[in-house]
Amino acid sequence: MTSEPARAVPASFLPAGSTIGILGGGQLGRLLALAAAKLGMRTHIYCPDPDSPAFEVTPNKTIAAYDDKKALTAFARSVDIVTYEFENVPAATATLIADLVPLAPDARALAISQDRLQEKAFLQNARVAICPFAPVLNATDLKGAIKSIGLPAVLKTTRLGYDGKGQRIVKTREQAQHAFNELSRVPGEKPQMVLEAFVPFEKEISVIVARNHKEEIAVYDPAENIHLNHILHTSTLPARITPQTAHEATEIATRIAKSLNYCGVLGVEFFVSKRGQTQQLLVNEIAPRVHNSGHWTESVCPTSQFEQHIRAICNWPLGSTRRYADVVMENLVGETISTVPGSLSQNEQPNVYGKSKIRAGRKMGHINRILPPSG
Ligand code: AMP
Fold it and tell me: Mean of the per-residue pLDDT values for the chain?
């Protein structure tokens, strides 16, 4: 039996008053729903967690599992288009939805970004430089991978990794074997990993790019990112990179969006390494959604990444990405949320996600510090 082809995003545009379905009810879903409301769109958020922060800002919600076919079907039938706020939407969920209603970004973008090996194959095909790697499915592969990639290296599960979960830096063969054993412990699943060369990067940057179905493209300035305990700590604009590196990063992000025939906002993460006097860019990973390192756009750009995503998937003209000011976005993780509002200054814009429980390592909000003009 052949299934119906996936529904295409309308060639014209979705008018205000349409309903956007969002899979996932975390802070990104919340910020998307707020941006959608500003454009006169309704949202319907689908999330299994009854305590989802996005539920507070949407008129419609469904609390159900991502494999609940009945609930997914009713959800898809109640909306004009579906998007998502996290890339680990199960493939079967994406297929079910895409058969009933347009899904943007599409199932291909989702499949590629969910699996590190597929992602690397896609990037290589698009002539994008990435770090040396080797697939690791068993202990014999691991030995071969160490031989070809060398040590130190980073062993990563191919799926379901985020904020440093599902990966280990390994410096010796013993550490690599130990990490392989540890990361293999997913019940009922065969180990699927990749060994990446450890990149002695100078800094990490990311570029947020948007593309709509009219093939318009809008790119934000590269952000320089610092991580603490594997979680993004700050994104700073401008990044301390050469104009040539900024240009290259923009060109690579654009090429990736075009190669995916992408619709929506896409985050592209890079390592910047020193090569003699020049900087070399390697793509670390891509995220088919609004991105934590793009939160600064809310405060210093005419169009935030959240509004841009809604405009892109609804096939509206894209907005300006021009940056008015230098800015530092800082994530408020765990107890650090309690610094708001006490220590706020005039040039600081807080965004509090309204999560009911503070937990160590949980992203509770962020703050954009707008910097005074220099000189
Ligand atoms: P990822 O989940 O792949 O985004 O990795 C999370 C973080 O781990 C990155 O932002 C880097 O700081 C670090 N990392 C990941 N892969 C490598 C690598 N191959 N070499 C050096 N650092 C890495």
Answer: 94
